[in-house]
Amino acid sequence: MIFIILMISMTKNNNTFNSSIHSNNNSNFNSFDNNSSNSILVFEYYTASGINDPNIISEAITLIESLLNDLTIFSKKEFSNNDSLNEKYSNDENINIHFLVSDKFNDIGNSYDSINKNKIVIDIPLEEWLNENISFFDSCMFISAEKNMNLYNLTKIIEDNNVKIYGSDSESTLLSSNKFSTFKHLQNIVKQPKTFLFTITDENPWEISIKSIFEFLYDENNPNSDDYKLIVKPLYGVDCQDMVIISDLEDISGLKEKFPDDIKVIVQEFIPGENVSVSLISDGKQAIPISLNKQYININKETQEYLGGKLPYCHPLTKKAFSVAKKAVESIEGIKGFVGVDLIINDLNNSILNKTDSNNLNLNNIEKNGDNIYFLEINSRFTTPYVGLSKIANFNMGGTIIELLDHKIDIDYLYKKNIGFNQFDHVVKFKKNNTFLDIEIL
User: Fold this and answer.
1) How far is the C-alpha of 65 from the C-alpha of 44, rounded, in Å?
2) Parts of the chain belonging to CATH 3.30.470.20
3) Is the distance from CB of 254 to CB of 224 less than 8 angstroms?
4) Strand order in 119-122's β-sheet?
5) How would CATH label the architecture of 4-165?
6) Cβ atoms 38, 93 nearer than 8 A
7) What is the rounded distance in angstroms from the CA atom of residue 356 to the CA atom of residue 185?
8) pLDDT in single tens digits along all 442 residues of the chain
9) Residue 51: count of CB within 10 angstroms of its CB
10) Where is the ATP-grasp domain positioned along the sequence (predicted)?
11) Range(s) of the chain covered by CATH 3.30.1490
């Protein structure tokens, strides 16, 4: 493959955009001239940074491809007849999508002519490129995670250059990225596991304190003490990465070997139950639940791994889960776009289903056990369920986010159109398979 190094220019407000890029074709680079009313830069952190992290790359690639597919359809205004919002989408604005990607992932987007024509391929650090060039775009829609403060740092760069973000603002991102700050902010709003903050150092007061917490909560949880555990994870962690399970006092002494010096971690009681998430779309103040998603997670002392999920997931406590997730998101102003909330439905099988004829569920018991739903965290960003939803939704999610945050539609309109709320004609399963994300539509 031969790469041609070119210098391209794009104008905005009489400024000149210059960037060294690589291209594998002879595209008309005049397409980068920003004469449209809304030029949107689109990227995903790992594929734009050239980082092939085996723990996340399958989700990263599939997420950005799903978003590019939605935005391609939206920018061309080629909506299907069953798109429940197509009559509301604006037809008078020319939207120009510019896709940013590392030369190590240059093949992403090649199947879309309009995307490939406006592709920007870089071989320098993403943050460096953004600092030099983001101001030449009107807006930005990007995918990133909280690890190493990436989500916040990228949001801040874009905000500081006065470029509109079709996603959460930096203040809400900073709050929701910090698991302990989120815990404190929502402490009297939603039910949460008991959570504590520590810094792992060479000194041992933290170790003594965690042992005291373990012993106290162990006794408090009788008669279930045999199964009692603590979860330790980084303050700015993602999925199950770097999670440690504490099931006895000896495990606490080993934390020093698991985490680097001076890292902040949260220590949280382990809540047995079913791992689920809720996907929502938010305008920064109001949110609408789209789907309840079952999470496949492997958590034991040897392995802690997010494997995939299934959606929509039908559950007796779906409405209650939606209510908890909506309340959490709306309690942090500035969370916008597609977001996810992780929950635990605590011991439902034992507390309700096993005590009730499954064909004749006692709805009163179900409502009373609604407080068995524990909030875990908010992901103020695109999450993996977007991949599944983009396959079965009867509306264009990427386009809906743009229209919502451009104030061309509102949350009330989405409610009137019965968007979301687990109302889909198909079920989607997705599962990690090395560097691929296997997707099955049922």
Assistant:
1) 10
2) 179-185+272-441
3) no
4) 119-122, 95-102, 38-44, 139-143, 164-165
5) 3-Layer(aba) Sandwich (3.40)
6) yes
7) 36
8) 333 333 333 434 434 454 445 443 333 333 444 554 689 999 999 999 999 998 899 999 999 999 999 999 998 876 665 666 756 665 556 889 999 999 999 999 998 888 888 999 999 999 999 999 999 999 999 999 998 899 999 999 999 999 999 999 999 999 999 999 999 999 999 999 999 999 999 888 999 999 999 998 887 765 555 678 899 999 998 877 788 999 888 899 889 888 888 999 999 999 999 999 999 999 999 999 999 999 998 877 777 788 999 999 999 999 999 999 999 999 999 999 999 999 999 865 444 444 444 344 444 544 455 579 999 999 999 999 999 999 999 999 999 999 999 999 999 999 999 888 999 999 999 999 888 899 999 9
9) 15
10) 194-406
11) 195-269
- Please tell me the distance from the alpha carbon of residue 26 to that of residue 29, in angstroms, as a whole number: 8
Q: Please report the sign of the dihedral spanned by the C-alpha atoms of residue 318, residue 320, residue 321, residue 326.
A: positive
Letter string b/e over residues 217-251, b meaning 16 or more CB atoms within 10 A of that residue's CB: bbeeeeeeeeebbbbbbbbbbbbbbbbbbbeeeeb
Taking the CA atoms of 188, 190, 192 and 198 in sequence, report the sign of the dihedral they define. Answer: negative
- Residues in the chain, how many? 442
pTM of the predicted protein model: 0.87
Cα–Cα distances (Å) from 254 to 198, 249, 289, 299, in that order, read: 15, 10, 40, 18
Q: What amino acid is encoded at 208 in this protein?
A: I
